[in-house]
Amino acid sequence: MTIVTHDAAAPRRTVSVTINSDLMAKAKAAKINVSAVAEAAVAAELAQRARAALLEELRQEAKDYERFIAENGSFSDGVDAWLEENP
After folding, report:
1. What is the pTM for the complete model shown?
2. Where do the structural domains in the chain lie, given as residue ranges?
3. Which residues have C-beta within 8 Å of that of residue 24, sequence separation ≥ 6?
4. What are the residues whose beta carbons fall under 8 Å from the beta carbon of 27, sequence distance 6 or more?
5. 3-state class (DSSP) for residue 19
C-alpha cells in the first residue's frame, strides 16, 4: 500500500537548513543534489510515521473488536443460536 504524504506537484519553496559544513562540502564535491535528498528523506520519514500511526490505529481497532466479541459473542454465534431455535 502506498501512503500519500504530500502533494508532489506542489511548488518548491526555499528554506534554510543547517547541515554539517564538512558533510555539505563533500556532498557538493560528489555533486549530490542535497535538496532532492532532503526532500526524499522528509517524505520517507512522513510515510514511516503515517504507517506507524495506521498500524497503531489497526491494533486498537483489533483490541476493541476482540473485546466486543468477548462481551457479545460473534455474528456466527448468533446465527448458530438462531438455527438451533429455528430448525
Report:
1. 0.72
2. 21-85
3. 34
4. 34, 37
5. coil
List Cβ neighbours of 6 (8 Å cut-off, separation of 6 or more).
Answer: 43, 46
Task: Tell me the pLDDT tens digit for each residue of 6-54.
Answer: 998 999 999 999 999 999 999 999 999 999 999 999 999 999 999 999 9
Cell numbers 522528509 label which residue?
Answer: 42
Instruction: Give the HSE-up count for residue 41: Cα atoms under 13 Å, Cβ half-sphere.
Output: 6
Angstrom CA distances, 34 to 3, 6, 13, 86, stand at 24, 19, 14, 71
Cβ atoms of residues 50 and 3 within 8 Å: yes
**Of 23, 53, 17, 8, nearest in space to 38 by CA:** 17
Nearest to 2 by CA among 41, 39, 42, 54: 54
For 84, residues 6+ apart whose C-beta sits below 8 A from its C-beta are none
CA neighbor of 82 nearest in space, from 34, 26, 74: 74
